[in-house]
Amino acid sequence: MTSKPLPHLTATGTCWCGCATKVGAGSFFAPGHDKVAEAALLAADYGASIAQLLHGHGYGPGHSVTARAVRAGVWEKCPSCTYVGAPASIRNHAKKAHPTQP
Ligand SMILES: [Zn+2]
Ligand SMILES: [Zn+2]
After folding, report:
1. Which helix (H) or strand (E) holds 53?
2. Residues 48-92 pLDDT 10s
3. From the CA of 5, how far away is ligand 1's center (Å)?
4. Ligand nearest to the CA of 93
């Protein structure tokens, strides 16, 4: 399974958090405003609860969102343990959790 196709978005020169700040070409957000928008969406639509967010997308204890990310090919599983994460996180994790002997 691969990740679902996402629509192509075009940066418009105005911050997408809705604050009307002008941003450079190619940017969707003024610095830090991506986190503001994320928190606002979570608060407005999911009661600021990640559990509600997951449930709203059909995920939960019996339907693992992290396993979904691995199946979609955007996350990986650590070859040495059950840790999953983005490829860069896996590399960081492996360095700390499974240091190779010199
Ligand atoms: Zn903004
Ligand atoms: Zn590991």
Report:
1. helix 50-56
2. 999 999 999 999 999 999 999 999 999 999 999 999 999 999 999
3. 26
4. 2
Report whether 90 contacts 78 (CB < 8 A): yes
Q: How far is CA 66 from the centre of its chain?
A: 10
**What does the DSSP 8-state code read for residue 84?**
E
Assess contact for 81 and 98: CB atoms under 8 A. Answer: yes
Instruction: Report the pLDDT averaged over residues 32-51.
Output: 98
Spatial distance between the Cα atoms of 84 and 76, rounded to a whole number of angstroms: 6
* 81 CA → ligand 1 middle, Å: 40
Residues with Cβ within 8 Å of residue 13, at least 6 apart in sequence: 22, 23, 24, 25
DSSP 8-state symbol, 76: E
Strands (E), 3-100: 76-77, 84-85
The whole-angstrom distance between residue 11's C-alpha and the CA centroid of its chain comes to: 19
